[in-house]
């Protein structure tokens, strides 16, 4: 049996990480992998997470199974963090999942179970795992134009034109904030136009929100998700705590499914529980419990929000430093988009050949689609990157 297996293609980012580790150059810079790193290159455990973990160690009396949807207090805390009061709670079914990826996967399975004819529309480009999971599940999918490689902003006209081709019942996958990989985002007026199109054509939004607090602030980054959910009959949401709580390896996510009417919620909730049961029974609990402990304790929550804000501001500072250094070296404003983009990533919009040149000649590692992780930089490496970008003719 096992000898019939075919080798899977290597994961590009993991392959890049391995090359980086083996590169002997002391000046090498890793802008590949999607984790936050501070100025010392460390992905820290946040203070509030440590405190909540200490409290759990002291106070937790059992590790017995929790329900199939995880701890309801976790769902409540996350729903309030993301949606505030945009949607009446009795319309929302929710289940804890192994990370945001688990939530994305459950959402796709739910779509396939309930409407096998639905096509899922994803932005071009999107987080590659969206497309690979859709293909793995044999779900029809296609792209809508999103990134304008000239302006490095959103090709909004192209996006609308493509989505106008979608059929009623199709699902449109949208990034709630901090678009990965491009860093380019819609403004709220554009979101409203998208909502009008969704409602006009009977399309169902699925929002992937994995970076709340990394862009313009905790509330600001949730604004689009709140606007969508308060304006459409049905919506699916996949949320991740990996980045904003720094609990990557704890696998902490939430899948929410919002029904048009509250009397549908119990059946929807039953389906979420069923999906968890079929795939892994009970979702991981530790990360979810840490998140709940933080969100429901005033002091821990304030400390978490303040550390998250420092993280956000440090990335914004690096963006501004990089954009101004590039302006100085290139004598042009063409890199101004780096300061406009939000979140951990920006797509430079250059060719794989030039990305390879940056790696070979300068020891600068980024994914071949020219996505760079802003958090991989620090005040010392920004001028090195800026110089390499200008010298290599990007
Ligand atoms: N969605 C997007 C857009 C992401 O960038 C990520 C993380 N790379 C995720 C979902 C899932 O993250 P995780 O499974 O680590 O929580």
TrEMBL record:
Signal peptide: none annotated. One of its GO terms (cellular component) is cytosol. Residues 27-389 form the Aminotransferase class I/classII large domain. Its cofactor is pyridoxal 5'-phosphate. GO terms for biological process: L-phenylalanine biosynthetic process from chorismate via phenylpyruvate. It holds the Pfam family Aminotran_1_2. Keywords: Aminotransferase, Pyridoxal phosphate, Transferase. GO terms for molecular function: identical protein binding; L-aspartate:2-oxoglutarate aminotransferase activity; L-tyrosine-2-oxoglutarate transaminase activity; pyridoxal phosphate binding. Homodimer. Belongs to the class-I pyridoxal-phosphate-dependent aminotransferase family. PANTHER family: ASPARTATE AMINOTRANSFERASE (PTHR11879), ASPARTATE AMINOTRANSFERASE, MITOCHONDRIAL (PTHR11879:SF22). This is Aspartate/tyrosine/aromatic aminotransferase. It comes from Shimia litoralis. The lineage of its organism: Bacteria, Pseudomonadati, Pseudomonadota, Alphaproteobacteria, Rhodobacterales.
């Amino acid at each position: 049996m096992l000898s019939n297996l075919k080798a899977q293609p290597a994961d590009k980012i993991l392959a890049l990480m391995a090359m980086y580790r083996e590169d002997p150059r002391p000046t090498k810079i890793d802008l590949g992998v999607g984790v936050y790193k501070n100025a010392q290159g460390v992905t820290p455990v946040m203070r509030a997470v440590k405190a909540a973990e200490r409290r759990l160690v002291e106070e937790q009396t059992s590790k017995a199974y929790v329900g199939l949807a995880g701890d309801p207090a976790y769902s409540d805390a996350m729903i309030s963090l993301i949606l505030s009061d945009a949607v009446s709670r009795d319309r929302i079914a929710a289940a804890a999942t192994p990370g945001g990826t688990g939530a994305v996967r459950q959402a796709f399975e739910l779509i396939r179970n309930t409407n096998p004819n639905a096509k899922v529309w994803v932005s071009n480009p999107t987080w590659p795992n969206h497309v690979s999971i859709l293909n793995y599940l044999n779900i029809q999918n296609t792209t809508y134009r999103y990134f304008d490689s000239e302006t490095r902003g959103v090709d909004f006209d192209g996006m609308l034109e493509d989505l106008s081709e979608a059929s009623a019942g199709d699902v449109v996958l949208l990034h709630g904030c901090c678009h990965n990989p491009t860093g380019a985002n819609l403004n709220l007026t554009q979101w409203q136009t998208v909502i009008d199109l969704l409602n006009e054509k009977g399309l169902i939004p699925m929002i992937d929100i994995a970076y709340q607090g990394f862009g313009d602030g905790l509330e600001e980054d949730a604004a689009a998700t709140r606007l969508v959910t308060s304006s459409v009959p049905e919506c699916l949401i996949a949320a991740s705590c990996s980045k904003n709580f720094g609990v990557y390896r704890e696998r902490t996510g939430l899948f929410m499914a919002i029904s048009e009417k509250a009397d549908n919620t119990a059946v929807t909730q039953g389906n979420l529980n069923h999906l968890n049961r079929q795939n892994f029974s009970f979702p991981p609990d530790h990360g979810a419990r840490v998140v709940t402990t933080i969100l429901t304790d005033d002091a821990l929550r304030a400390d978490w929000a303040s550390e998250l804000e420092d993280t956000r501001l440090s990335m914004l500072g690096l963006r501004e430093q990089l954009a101004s250094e590039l302006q100085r070296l290139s004598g042009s404003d063409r890199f101004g988009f780096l300061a406009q983009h939000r979140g951990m990533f920006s797509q430079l919009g250059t060719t794989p050949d030039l990305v390879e040149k940056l790696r070979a000649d300068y020891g600068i590692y980024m994914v071949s689609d020219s996505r760079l992780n802003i958090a991989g930089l620090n005040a010392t490496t920004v001028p090195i990157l800026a110089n390499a970008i200008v010298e290599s003719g990007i």
